Amino acid sequence: MRTRSTTSHGSSTPSLANPPRSEMRRLERPPSRTFRPASPRHPGNRSRPGSSLGSFPSSDSANSRPSTPSFRQEPYTGNIAVLIRPNPQSVLPNSPWSIDSIGQTITNTTDFTSYSFDNVFPADAECSNRFVYDRAGSELVKKFLNEGYNATIFAYGMTGSGKTFSMKGNNSDPGFVQLAIDDLFAKIESDSREYSVSVNYLEIYNEKIIDLLSTGSATDLKIREDLAYGNCVVGVNSPSITSKDQLLQLIRKGDTNRKTSVTDYNHRSSRSHSILQIRVSAVDRIRCRELNATLSLCDLAGSERATSSLERLKEGAYINKSLLALSTVINKLSLASTTLTADHIPYRDSKLTRLLQPALSGSSLVLILCTVHLGSGSGLTNQHRISETYNTLRFAARAKDIVVSVNKNQMNIDEDLLRLVETLRRTIETQKNEITMLKQSSTFSGETNGNSVELQQKEMQIGQLQAELAVCNERLEHFARLTDLQKTETIMLKNDTVNDILGSGAEELQMIMANFEEFHRRLNYELEESKLYISQLEMQLRNALSHQQPVHRSAVPKEYETRIKDQEEEIWHLKELLKDKDHVIKSLTKTSKLRRLADSTNTDHRKWQASGNEKDSPQRPLGNSFVI
Ligand SMILES: Nc1ncnc2c1ncn2[C@@H]1O[C@H](COP(=O)(O)OP(=O)(O)OP(=O)(O)O)[C@@H](O)[C@H]1O
């Protein structure tokens, strides 16, 4: 039996036939990125070790480091997980494909070409969506919910092979979308953290992005870079979700808006790529931690050959073009991972690759569900199906080689401030209760004088506390903004900047540097603005306090006076805490580091230009100076 090497990209990848440019920029992978699960290419070890999910370690695995109390954590590094699922309806007795679900291989019995993956499921009607999800999807969803990793699952395969069936399922056999949502809400119900969930649902139809949740005509939306999630779509509806039913209802609404048609091969063929994104934020007030992660579930349109209808032909051309772009991106990423070289990755060639860019370039754990036909069926020749299955398997084999390095989206919230906000909230609550009680008792006993002074005092104190709370909240928001800025820096450097720099000439390089400088200027400006805003707020608060009416202490009964004194002391203590500027200073230090990085990169670039090096010089300094 011949095992097809998954590294033999050469002949099937024309764009890689000219490798010297990438060869020249060989990058050493730093030690933290060297982990890769057992490669199926080693003889006698074609299948991955018996994990249900192949590439993703379980939550307590040594491969993913435990969370540490810092903003930045070591990333999880591992391969993209790939599973193969045949459509049982298309299997014929004379099928040339044989599946070994224990060894996780699929073999063509005519030419004995064999492929191995994380999971190869049997072509069996008994093999339900639940079974596939439990074996291959649930671990990924757990890592998304428990550890704050972004997670992306996408279904890829020929038209009619079962992508939509796997993602959506039906009433008796719910698909990945429903099963992941069940897991999400089970977690929310059993967890003490405060959750907020939002959703967006898009389709890419004929290279136009359409909002499936829009009630109006939200067609051809634009993509822009997003601070938190990489590329995102401008103007897309992202309603907040309060219940599982509401979420499922929204998705059903989106599904009815999706373009489907009868084609030669599928009576309800998806004519677009759909991307459902569920964003979850979980705040753990006890441990002062916040987790923000996105689960993306994509049902791609199926590749197909010529069809009888003109309209379908046009759609098919767009579908094939974007799938080709995805295939090229996968090939290049695969080559970069197996040879440890860096080359320009053409994410911008299609809307699909741009939207999947954050996931494929390391912002997300990825599971690719490849669906295939194993036999012939009506309307297609057996040969055609065999070649489409080959294409899918080749795509899957390359995808499996891609190594991603993914960060958790978990951060510590400023503990002092959070505690301060909590204390202020509690104090306000207590004071409100006291006021209500005092009001009630004064109405009841008919006493007005002393208590009304008391009431005024309490109300004044509440006003002060509320003002302080507002300042604290402002500061918390300020820290959140600083964290966002840090993320922008990472995303910009990690994704587009590296790719753009590697694929650009001297003139473009200057432009990139100018943009980078501009970005840095903006960062500084934003910081200054935030500082100014905070000091204005503090000044306002001080003014407000100094203009308060003097209180007639003599009118206040003794027991209340002591209590007020206590509270005044507490307020003084809280104000002292407010003075803590440590985090602002830390953030400024980080920004100045960024400044220095930009300066040194600029200097390197000038030196490199002055030395008159050729564009593709192996020692080209900029290539490395941006790799983090
Ligand atoms: N694993 C499966 N078990 C039972 N039926 C399946 C399975 N996979 C697919 N089918 C059936 O095969 C048909 C085609 O499946 P589906 O519509 O999911 O294909 P698709 O890959 O999404 O096609 P397209 O790309 O054209 O949208 C459907 O009738 C579906 O119910």
What does the largest sheet look like?
10 strands, mixed
What percentage of amino acids are in beta strands?
15-25%
The CATH architecture of the largest domain comes to 3-Layer(aba) Sandwich
Through-space gap between termini: 43 Å
What is the total domain count? 2
Indicate the radius of gyration in whole angstroms.
29 Å
Overall mean confidence score, pLDDT:
71
- Would you identify the regions where 5 or more consecutive residues have pLDDT less than 50? 1-72, 489-496, 549-556, 614-628
Helix coverage percent of residues?
Answer: 40-55%
Instruction: Give the number of helices.
Output: 14
Write up this protein.
The protein has 628 residues and is α/β, with parallel strands linked by helices. The protein folds into two domains: 79-412, 3-Layer(aba) Sandwich (Kinesin); 415-625. 48% of the residues lie in helices and 16% in strands. Strands 3, 7, 8, 9, 10, 13, 16, 17, 18 and 20 form a ten-stranded mixed β-sheet that branches. The protein has a four-stranded mixed β-sheet with strand order 1-6-5-4, with no helix packed on it. A two-stranded antiparallel sheet has the order 2-19. Strand 9 and strand 10 (208-211) form a beta hairpin. Helix 9 (415-445) runs antiparallel to helix 10, helix 10 runs parallel beside helix 13 and helix 11 runs antiparallel to helix 13 (582-610). The longest helix is centred in the C-terminal third of the chain and has 54 residues, at 449-502. It is globular, with a radius of gyration of 29 Å. Bound molecules: adenosine-5'-triphosphate. Adenosine-5'-triphosphate is lined by residues 87-89, 125, 157, 159-165, 266, 268-270, 301-302, 371.
